[in-house]
């Protein structure tokens, strides 16, 4: 559960570099306490948007507010309330994990730096590795340390820019589980920018899709799926054999040994179809296919083209 109060707001923001538009009339909001999936292909403008929100660069036109402050005129106040994890994480390899965090804690003027560093090493699961040089860390450990660094000053908002890049599936899953735990434990608002859609489908409360700096769509998965995935496919495991393209009024998309796949207009048809199938023979399992975040993204992109 998360609160609906807006903590980030963009209104008609534009940004160009050397005359080339990178952000184009972009407007969206982020709600306090949510994990927002900020999604789009490489080059969509995700990193540029994060830099705008942190006051690192200024917009050409439009208005931004972050935690009640304008990043253009109150960048220091914004950065006090935000933590950022970039792809590189900007850590020092010859230094240990503890030394890295102590260095940045002093830089950020963190109160009780030694205690805060110990807390974060523990929270991030790095306490056993605290005195190892970062140069020998795995990519996953570096990502965790980068998040610890971003949390040093207890920010309200955490920006994660492609956090799973370079991780194997197991490492990516572990990191995403950790991100979920941070959100639940500390109620920190998280903006997670990525192009790896399957990884974040179950993690985020809401999603924003952008491409070429433009907003394509925003909402929860259920809201977006109901709007853009107007039909669904149901795969049924069964011994039944059906000839033709229809079964008692239901469209048969595909038939393979042991499986039947039906195209339905709405999910309310599922129990009706299963009732008809069960009256004819055994059904061992049924699952909806093609109703996932990646399919949703491409459907939205097709409609917005």
Automatic annotation (TrEMBL):
Question: What sequence ranges are listed for the domain ABC transporter?
Answer: 8-237
Identify the keywords attached in UniProt to this record, alphabetized. ATP-binding, Nucleotide-binding, Transport
Query: What GO molecular function terms would the record report?
Result: ATP binding; ATP hydrolysis activity
Q: Does the keyword ATP-binding apply?
A: yes
As for family, the record states:
Belongs to the ABC transporter superfamily.
Q: Tell me the protein's name.
A: ABC transporter ATP-binding protein
Looking up Pfam families in the UniProt record yields: ABC_tran
């Amino acid at each position: 559960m998360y609160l609906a109060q807006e903590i980030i707001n963009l209104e008609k923001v534009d940004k160009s570099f050397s005359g080339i538009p990178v952000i184009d009339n972009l407007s969206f909001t982020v709600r306090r306490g949510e994990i927002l999936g900020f999604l789009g292909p490489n080059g969509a403008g995700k990193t540029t948007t994060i830099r705008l929100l942190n006051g690192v660069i200024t917009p050409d036109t439009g208005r931004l507010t972050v935690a009640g402050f304008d990043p253009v005129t109150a960048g220091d106040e914004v950065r006090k309330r935000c933590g950022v994890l970039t792809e590189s994480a900007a850590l020092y390899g010859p230094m240990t994990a503890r030394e890295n965090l102590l260095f940045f804690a002093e830089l950020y003027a963190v109160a009780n730096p030694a205690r805060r560093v110990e807390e974060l090493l523990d929270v991030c699961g790095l306490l056993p590795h605290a005195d190892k040089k970062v140069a020998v860390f795995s990519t996953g450990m570096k990502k965790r340390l980068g998040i610890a660094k971003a949390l040093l000053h207890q920010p309200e908002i955490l920006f994660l820019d492609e956090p799973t890049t370079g991780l194997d599936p197991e490492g990516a899953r572990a990191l995403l589980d950790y991100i979920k735990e941070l959100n639940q434990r500390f109620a920190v608002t998280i903006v997670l920018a990525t192009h790896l859609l399957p990884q974040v489908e179950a993690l985020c409360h809401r999603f924003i899709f952008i491409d070429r700096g433009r907003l394509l769509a925003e909402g929860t998965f259920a809201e977006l799926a109901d709007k853009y995935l107007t039909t669904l496919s149901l795969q049924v495991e069964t011994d039944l054999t059906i000839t033709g393209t229809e079964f008692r009024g239901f469209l048969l998309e595909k038939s393979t040994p042991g499986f039947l796949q039906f195209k339905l207009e709405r999910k309310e048809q599922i129990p009706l179809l299963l009732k008809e199938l069960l009256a004819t023979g055994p059904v061992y399992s049924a699952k909806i296919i093609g109703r996932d975040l990646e399919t949703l993204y491409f459907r939205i992109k097709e409609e917005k083209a």
